[in-house]
Amino acid sequence: MSINYDLIPWHAAAGGVTIGIAVALLLLFNGRIAGISGIVGGLCRMQKGDISWRIAFICGLILSVVVWKSFFALPLIQIETSHVMLVLAGLLVGYGTRFGSGCTSGHGVCGISRHSPRSIAATAVFMLTGFATVYLIRHVF
Amino acid sequence: MLSVTSLLAGVVFGLGIIGSGMVNPAIVLAFLDITGDWDTALLWVMGGAVTVGSIAFALAKKRKQSFLGSSMQIPAVTKIDSRLLAGSFMFGVGWGIAGICPGPALVLIGTGSNDAVIFLVAMLAGMGIYQITQDHS
Q1: Does any CB of chain A come closer than 8 Å to the CB of residue B19?
Q2: How far is Cα B42 from Cα B45, in angstroms, rounded to an integer?
Q3: Which of residues 119-138 of A touch B (CB under 8 A)?
């Protein structure tokens, strides 16, 4: 059996490897999990000595756009969701990720990487719920 | 120093989100649309990230301290409880509506998207509501 390498989205896999390197950096140098909802949400606790690294990581995420643009053109970005639905989605993502202790990065990438059954369960739930939500929005209503 | 490595990790993470295409909510929604014209790209992103991540966590497990001498803060909770499942359910609904999760939301802010600002403010409000309503004693 031959594999059609043209069908593999290499840029996606390479981007994933890059995300993995970022996870490794934060884990091995800072001893921290690169879970974005946890890093942002943890700011609410205002614990001394636990703030600057969080802000630095968040700034890094935002600044990555500037770094990217100094080498390549930004890819196409399409947001077609209405403002009302964006607000609803944001509230659900913010509340849900804190209530469930993680998002795509904390549970999805880091949790699966450390073989946590809890994170694998969480990832299965938000993926299946995501599938169902898109199905209902695009194909039912 | 911890802030420097954290800033660097944030930049690298963001470059991965942009390079993988996941900064575009339309591509994320195309992955979630399994009965439509299914785009598997997100699975490849996860595969690449988990491959490197697994090596990193295997190395981390053997260490008591990070390279910079800070403690290794890896979650010890193992219980799959209703909070985990209910929170992940809510997150999944929100993710399915907009195709945006917390990482890409912050990267999108860097692109100057007004829609991303609306999403991010709502997301922070959602986190704030959680903080106010949950007792962390």
Answers
A1: yes
A2: 5
A3: 121-123, 125-135, 137-138
